[in-house]
Amino acid sequence: MTKKVGVLALQGAVSEHISQINQLGGQGIAVKTPADLAQVQGLIIPGGESTAISRLIQQVNLYEPIQEFAKTNPVFGTCAGLILCGSGITDGGEKLKPLNLIDIAVTRNGFGRQVDSFEVDLDIENVGKAIPSVFIRAPFIDSVGQGVKTLATYEDKIVMAEQGNVLVCSFHPELTDNNQVIGYFMSKIAG
């Protein structure tokens, strides 16, 4: 059975995620409404502008449905998606309403502005060694609660973690040819 993996399609790198999902044998589906969400077995919340995505999630009535979905299905937040999945923001973000899917506090733009973007190879637990990772205005995880497992760090900052069926990373796995990170997420989806 083909795994149906949703990508929240309100803003951000949607087509790149869908492309990797399809390359891995899944079916990538753009999620814009609660009805779309009901069709998928896993959800990726992609990068973009976290405040804008937060506002749009509420406008299209997806806030509570995503929270309910995450109780029984895998969710993966990348870059801005990590910020949205978290439970606290350490540097402002007053206009942002986090989804509280994983017990982490996040620093937005933790690695600087757009001009400070970089690519680095990371060793990621459960995924592999020297995984190419693209950081663009990337957040980092300031602190983790009990039950949160750190999967990768860069310069002593946590950049990938998981708790239950929720996975988050600071970088953009969809912007490289390496599909191991998205493959790891898809391995969490039953089917």
Automatic annotation (TrEMBL):
What is a GO molecular function of this protein? transferase activity
UniProt name for this protein: Pyridoxal 5'-phosphate synthase subunit PdxT
Question: Which pathway does it take part in?
Answer: Cofactor biosynthesis; pyridoxal 5'-phosphate biosynthesis
HAMAP family recorded: PdxT
One GO CC term, this protein: cytosol
Q: Which Pfam families match?
A: SNO
A Gene Ontology biological process noted in the UniProt record is: L-glutamine catabolic process
The family database entries (InterPro entries) matched by this protein are listed as:
Class_I_gatase-like, PdxT/SNO, PdxT/SNO_CS
What SUPFAM superfamilies does the record tag this protein with?
Answer: Class I glutamine amidotransferase-like
